[in-house]
Design a protein that fits this description.
The complex is a heterodimer. Chain A is of the alpha+beta class. Chain A has helices at residues 2-17, 41-50, 101-112, 145-148, 214-222, 234-241, 266-269, 271-279, 283-290, 321-330, 359-373, 388-395, 413-420, 437-445, 452-469, and strands spanning 28-32, 58-60, 66-68, 71-76, 82-87, 123-130, 133-138, 177-183, 187-192, 205-210, 228-229, 247-261, 334-335, 341-343, 346-347, 349-355, 378-384, 400-406, 472-484, 488-489, 506-507. Classes of the chains: A alpha+beta, B mainly alpha. The interface between A and B is large, with 63 and 63 residues.
Chain lengths: 511, 297
Amino acid sequence: MFRNLCLIIFIALAGLTGCSAPDSSDTLSISGPFEPISLDPARSGYIFSRMQVIETLVDIDNKGQLKPGLATRWEHSKDNRVWTFYLRPNVVFHDQSAMNADAVVNSLNIAFSKPAPYPQDLVEAVTALNESTVQITLSRPYRPFASLLTNYTTAILSPASYNESQEITKLSGTGPYQVEEFQPPHRVGVTKFQNYWGEPAHVSKVVYTTGHRAETRALMVASGQTDIVYNLDAASVDLLKVSKKAKVDSTLIPRTILIKVNASYPALADVKVRQALSLAIDRQGIATKILRVEDIEANQLFGPSMGVWHDATLPPAEQDVKRANALLDEAGWLQDDSGIRHKNGSPLKLNMITYANRAELIVIATALQNQWAQIGVDLRVHMENASAIPSGHADGTLQLALMARNFANIPDPLGIMLADFTSTEGGDWGPMGWQNPSVFSALSALPLVQDKKAYASQVQNIMHQINADLPVIPVVFYMQQSAVAPRVENFSFDPYERSFRLSDITLKPAS
Amino acid sequence: MAWSVGTLTFVLVRTLPGDMAYKIAASRYGDDAVSTASAAAVRAELGLDSPAWQQYFHWLSNLITLDLGDSLVSGAPVVQELQHQLGYTLLLAVCAMLVSVIIAFPLGILSGARPSSAVDNSIMVGSTFVRAQPVFSLGLLLIFLFAMELNWLPVAGFGEPRHLILPALTLGLSLAAISNRIIRSSTINVLHSAYYQFARIKGMSRFSTFCRHGIRNILLPVIAFMGIQLIGLIEGVIMVESVFAWPGIGHGLSHAVFARDIPMLQGAALVFGLMFVALNTLIDVCCARLDPRGVRQ
């Protein structure tokens, strides 16, 4: 009876809207939370890079090692100021024009004039030495420069992509897929580019649809409507693990959920307080109960995929409320009858901001609120826009911020460390008001170290000091979860989130 | 109207907490790339340091020439973005209204014809249940039923007619849950009125009495109520568009608030305002046509 009633309503509505039955398409359908708002790589390059429309001079492998992209090799002067890139031959843009040094110079000059996650004044000049060689001169020595050129904002576009005002009117890159349809901010349709320089794509058409909510995306793949969905929330992962229509892929990525600390704020200036806050965190509980993932507790800033910057010998981070209480006592913060700690008449009240775009952050923040209450800390949590973090850093009002810091924007951590950990100014998404002259000078000298062993040893020494001094408090490493339909073969997740690796994918024929 | 809506939007957005340049930078470049440097670049590019009155008069002079400006986030002309989004929202709103009419009228009349009967009570319980659900939750329930269990419809998306069914049904059901109760009350009033009883006593059949003296009189308060319901429709559209990944103006509007995208907000509010005026005028015209007594006086 009920089923029949549903059928009647369905038929009525189908007639109303001219419904067609779902087709068994050979189009790969994918969905994620990213909203492509523009064709400009500076604004929406992260989606066009993931869709393999645009490519950069330098590429990166799963372990963060640089590898040739549109440049087959590169070299630099001894002082790391002059960099020469040798371009890959026989590469054509989607508009069929050839990729040569002039096109690369034009593209990079425009890219370097726009906001990007690296210092704006770094590049002094980009010149074409000949048809296939480009030289970039920097304003100062910069050892991790090649890794900057993996960032999507430096993608190489055809000269015909730009109008006279250097705005992008037609996105013509060099990737295995070209843009066929663009409906900002909800859909990008791409088709296979026949003249791609590398291994051609297998699936001829891919459509990306923005799925605003994680719940909706999970249901899209569980119902068989979509082949791959990215960025699942923990609750949806549970649902999909029991579904036969999708497999969950979990990949550890170079992103850490951490607490940014304003070390110039009186209550947080004492390292004992920061250590107590860190010891009071039940990381295992957060990992297994909130994020539903095992073994991602962060005992240091960088995760296991970050090469020498990760110290595998460090013991796991375990909650120790007793030790945390002892440290606060030592620091002079004493508990009163209400359970809140006080020092010189002031209560240990802290404000923490976090943001809504990553749904798990607010849940983790409320867990921290509870865990820190056990050691007498009164934590207030404020939901904000992500921009409140750099804004609070700039005006000095921020006390604590819970955030998911992306370390893949510039794959060589040296770039991030030089920007964030070499002065008391810190970084928008890094430390704030933290002083450690020994780390500052050791880091500043690091780019000059040529010997690999010495370099690794100095990195370990620096990270040891940072992990002890806690200018930021790591909570958990980030596990990216995606769901994939059974008909999709050769799926893999790029931990550096630069590519959806669509060109590797094949689709099983419908049985 | 355009001036008042635009001015109010401008004042409200300027009084929201937080630095506009940072909010715009976050929407433009994404959470991972928002920084003081990108916010400074946005501030310089958009002249956000100039006094608010200068920005306001710049907008006002553009409005006089029918130029709504460019989105601060995407850089595309606001008119272009609104055209794209408004088409989808209107399609969804019209279909939702149709669905609500198709559902609410038979149920309301059935309830009104037999008040306090088992049918009336069941419809009342059903309506209360549907109305008690937030639109978001109702949408998820329908997704579970039609997309997951029965596998008849897609969960979300757009581009094909079948993508429209679930969002339209969600909104339509939510609207019908109230309007069927108004139709019921109106039906009871009309069926118990002296003129209706007189028509029956003078020997007209049940059917022709209903057609000649019932429908028009029942419709009057219902159509007026549907005008008021448009406000609820807009509220529901924002949530439904988000759940079903529908590319409409409601979703665009909510993102413009987060991004402090003043030109988009002013444009969207302006379009909403004009739509309200146009639809309310349409409702008034319909009511006047149905009940010409006021016109004669």
